[in-house]
Amino acid sequence: MKRQLAMMLPLAACLSLSACSEERPIGKPPNHASATKKEERYGGGVSGLNYSSDAIEGFSVTGPRGMNGGGANMGPAYKDGPATAGEMCCIGIPKHWQPDTKLEIEWVRDRFPYSHENRTGAVVMKATVTVPQYAPKTSGFFAIFLPGDRVKVMVGDGNANGNNDVNIRPPDDDPFIAQGVLDEALTKELQERFK
Predict the structure, then answer these.
(1) pLDDT, tens digit, for every residue of 54-79?
(2) Residue 47: strand pairing partners
(3) Residues whose CB falls within 8 Å of the CB of residue 1, separated by 6 or more in sequence, listed in order
(4) 30 falls within a domain
(5) Alpha helices, DSSP H, located in the chain
(6) Helix (H, G, I), strand (E, B) or coil at 40
């Protein structure tokens, strides 16, 4: 247990720092304008909601403007609502939303979460998602998993624009829902670890 904790602490520190760091291409010096005027960001927690019948064995998001983070495991949805993941720290949430902010999300979807013998249902999925508009006052970042390997992300803001209410399942025609695709190479690596 102590060894596992010792291994997790550096990872947590890196994730925490990456959420607050100014993002720029490697080897490129910082833009002097941005070096003197840093974008205001909040450190927000990352949570998940799972409306699908599959388990979600963790997820991660990466993107511009410090929006990097990850979330915990979730079981399949309940009859009366989504399974949830406890909040994890941290992701950088820019105070001011910008249109067409795109993030990459990766998750492990498991069709047979309660079978220790059959691990063929665990695959790695990926999608590119657009962050819906949010207000300057925010309440964390959410990844919402839907049937059919679909996903939506949002920054909770008290539903300032009608698209960010975490208490309501996104409708199927929500323009911010993205279709996940199977990452065959990462799935193969995952399946090898189960052998």
Answers:
(1) 999 989 999 887 788 888 899 999 99
(2) 142
(3) none
(4) no
(5) 2-20, 32-36, 184-194
(6) coil
- As for how many domains the chain has, the answer is 1
Domain assignment present for 167? yes
CA distances from 117 to 71, 122, 190 (A): 26, 12, 15
Tell me the pLDDT band of 89, cut-offs 50, 70 and 90.
confident
In a domain, 28, yes or no: no
For residue 111 the two structure tokens come to 């069709």
| Nearest by Cα to 136 from 64, 63, 44, 60 | 44
- Three-state secondary structure along 5-28? HHHHHHHHHHHHHHHHCCCCCCCC
Are 105 and 124 contacting, i.e. CB atoms less than 8 angstroms apart?
A: no
8 A C-beta contact, residue 51 and residue 77: yes
* CB 134, CB 163: distance < 8 Å: no
Residue 90: asked if its preceding bond is cis (omega within 30°), the reply is yes
User: What is the domain range of residue 66?
Assistant: 2-21+40-194
Q: Are strands 69-71 and 55-62 parallel, antiparallel or unpaired?
A: antiparallel
Mean pLDDT on 119-133: 89
Q: How far apart are CA 34 and CA 111, in angstroms?
A: 45
This prediction's pTM: 0.76
Q: How far apart (Å, rounded) are the C-alpha atoms in residues 111 and 193?
A: 17
| Assigned domain for 49 exists | yes
